[in-house]
Write a structure and sequence with these properties.
This protein has helices spanning 43-46, 55-65, 78-90, 102-116, 134-138, 143-146, 164-170, 194-207, 279-292, 295-314, 333-344, 366-380; strands spanning 22-26, 29-32, 37-40, 95-99, 121-125, 156-159, 175-180, 183-184, 190-191, 210-214, 240-243, 254-258, 319-322, 325-329, 346-347, 349-352, 355-358. It is α/β, with parallel strands linked by helices and 382 residues long. The protein has a domain at 22-53 and 294-347 and 356-380: Aspartate Aminotransferase, domain 1 (Alpha-Beta Complex). The protein has a 7-stranded mixed beta sheet with strand order 4-12-11-10-7-5-6, sandwiched between helices. Strands 1-2-3-15 form a 4-stranded mixed beta sheet. β16 (349-352) and β17 form a beta hairpin. α7 runs parallel beside α8 and α10 (295-314) packs parallel to α12. It is globular and about 55 Å long. The protein binds pyridoxal-5'-phosphate. Pyridoxal-5'-phosphate (PLP) is lined by residues 101-103, 106, 129-131, 181, 185-186, 214, 216-217, 244-245.
Length: 382
């Protein structure tokens, strides 16, 4: 690769990257190419659920890599069938479509909703984020992300995230689906209220629209329950759940899970994805579920989340979120995140100018939480 001097040179500049190259990870620790050790409170954006290189998923990947990778969706493969049964029985009971990413899971849900209600509209919330493909982007009401790419997919209605009555009034018999994140992630870690979610459920029941939960970021144990909708603070069951990020623990996979009533809504030929359901990704996701779908493990996620939340609150920070999906408000969050990386070897993320997000691996140890808190305290001058 002669002539390419900077690691950035051959990459399109779509991301503002830090000048750090990571070469190794273990649990909630990362090492860069200069040998510096970091505590990872980002987990590849709420994705590396079991930490880096967890032995159980490494073993599952190696085992599957030696037997079968990919055969196309003209056939079955064993890890895909097993994962489908597990996801369906542990959640909505109908069926699942496998994808490679979160945006693709959203696209599946949007198309399914249009099949359910032809020409129907979508209702989404301010502050929501559903991905970067055209359908998902059209459902992501952020001018900076949408405007350069207009015209978008028509038929999306946007309502505030804190007004159950406005939401209910926007859902009528022309509506195909209400699409929400139970906890808005990219929008700054804002849990939706029980009242809003209940209003969405009631409006969908009344109008026949589908309630779609985007659990791409908040699902798979992140909030202390296997699915975010199963947490007692949510207590609303959707018709469709979209998953990705944590499902593969760092390996690309997504899923769109539906109720029994929707199992036949998409028909042969309606939708597809060449890599969706490939044996490697599904074998890894099964290994992730082996660990995460466990009462004791989820109880530890809640306890760790509480420890982190309490520690941040003791520093005088205003903390939002649930389980190990947390954020605190801070002026000039991006500058803080950069200092944390270089001065304290902490991997954090700013979801906006005034929000620092913490979504560590679910296996982060108490000592790592305490060490991270001490580093945050010293960065803040506490
Ligand atoms: C990350 C994310 C997506 C998009 O997932 P990709 O895998 O990046 O396509 C969609 N919805 C939510 C809530 C997300 O956090």
């Amino acid at each position: 690769m002669s002539g390419i001097s900077s690691p950035a040179a051959a990459l399109l500049p779509t991301y503002r990257r830090f000048d750090v190259t990571f070469v190794r990870g273990s649990g909630a620790r990362l090492w860069d190419s200069d040998g510096n050790e970091y505590i990872d409170l980002l987990a590849g954006i709420a994705t590396v659920q079991l930490g880096h290189c967890h032995p159980a998923i490494v073993a599952a990947l190696e085992r599957q890599a030696r037997s079968l990778w990919h055969v196309s969706n003209f056939f079955y493969n064993q890890p895909m069938v097993e994962l489908a049964e597990r996801l369906v029985t542990r959640s909505l009971g109908g069926g699942v479509f496998f994808t490679n990413s979160g945006a693709e899971a959203i696209e599946c849900a949007l198309k399914l909703a249009r099949r359910h209600r032809p020409r129907g509209e979508f209702v989404v919330l301010e502050g929501g984020f559903h991905g970067r493909t055209f359908g998902a982007l059209s459902a992501t009401p952020q001018p900076s992300k949408q405007e350069p790419f207009a015209p978008l997919v028509p038929g999306v209605r946007v309502v505030p995230r804190d007004d159950p009555e406005r939401l209910a009034a926007s859902v009528d018999e022309r509506c195909a689906a209400v699409l929400v994140e139970p906890i808005q992630g990219e929008g700054g870690v804002h849990p939706l209220t029980r009242e809003l979610l209940a209003a969405a459920r009631a409006a969908c029941d009344r109008s026949g629209a589908l309630l779609v939960f985007d659990e791409v970021q908040c699902g798979i144990g992140r909030t202390g329950s296997l699915f975010a909708y199963q947490h007692e603070d949510v207590a609303v069951t959707p018709d469709v759940v979209c998953l990705a990020k944590g499902l593969g623990g760092g390996f690309p996979i997504g899923a769109c899970v539906v109720t029994p009533a929707l199992r036949e809504t998409l028909r042969p030929g309606d939708h597809g994805s060449t890599f969706g359901g490939n044996a490697l990704a599904c074998a890894v996701a099964n290994a992730v579920l082996d660990v995460v779908d466990d009462h004791a493990f989820l109880a530890r996620v809640r306890a760790r989340g509480e420890r982190l939340r309490r520690g941040l609150a003791e520093l005088g920070l205003h903390v939002r979120g649930r389980g190990l999906m947390l954020a605190f408000a801070l002026d000039d969050a991006p500058a803080f995140v950069e200092r944390a990386l270089h001065e304290a070897r902490l991997v954090l993320n700013a979801t906006g100018p005034d929000t620092v997000r913490l979504v560590p691996p679910l296996v982060i140890e108490d000592e790592e939480i305490d060490s991270a808190l001490a580093r945050i305290a010293s960065l803040l001058g506490c």
